[in-house]
Amino acid sequence: MRHRKHTFKIGRTASHRRCMIANMVKSLIVHGRIKTTERKASELKRHADHVVTLAKSNALANKRKIVGDLMIRYNSLTTKEARAAKAGDTSSYNIDRRVMGKLDELAKRFANRNGGFTRVLKEGYRVGDGASLCYIEYLSE
């Protein structure tokens, strides 16, 4: 029986789904709003809310769990990037390095909220295949 075995498959293998969700959550954290299909957004909402919940408790185990779930890789900086980072310019960082900083900001923003950190706004239909599109974003609170 498949009781309580909820997952969305959408024609992808398990490893592809895991990578896709991790990349989408990282993009959502960095940009605050992304455009995707409704089916992906409904699954992404679960994962994005869970990541913020983990980030709210400032425990080392939770930070390590986030790094593992989102597959964050800290690539070494070149000397030019290291000099810029030391001076305070973090724009040269790749997206993985920016995620944890943005996640701390989100945790502070939602400190008094118990759940429901994201919302899905329907947008229309894609021209090529007619898939229903929507925006998913973090609340402004």
Give a concise summary.
With 141 residues, this protein is an alpha+beta fold.
Keywords:
single chain; 141 residues; alpha+beta; 50s Ribosomal Protein L17, Chain: A; three-stranded antiparallel β-sheet; 5 helices; 3 strands; 50% helix; 14% strand; ribosomal protein; ribonucleoprotein; Ribosomal_bL17; 50S ribosomal protein L17; Ribosomal_bL17_sf
What does this molecule look like?
- The protein is α+β, with helices and mostly antiparallel strands.
- The protein has a single domain, classed as 50s Ribosomal Protein L17, Chain: A.
- Helices cover 50% and strands 14% of the residues.
- The protein contains 5 helices and 3 strands.
- The chain has helices at 14-31, 38-56, 60-69, 79-86, 95-109; strands at 33-37, 118-125, 132-138.
- It has a 3-stranded antiparallel β-sheet with strand order 1-3-2.
- α1 crosses α2 (38-56), α1 (14-31) packs across α5 (95-109) and α2 (38-56) crosses α5.
- The chain is globular.
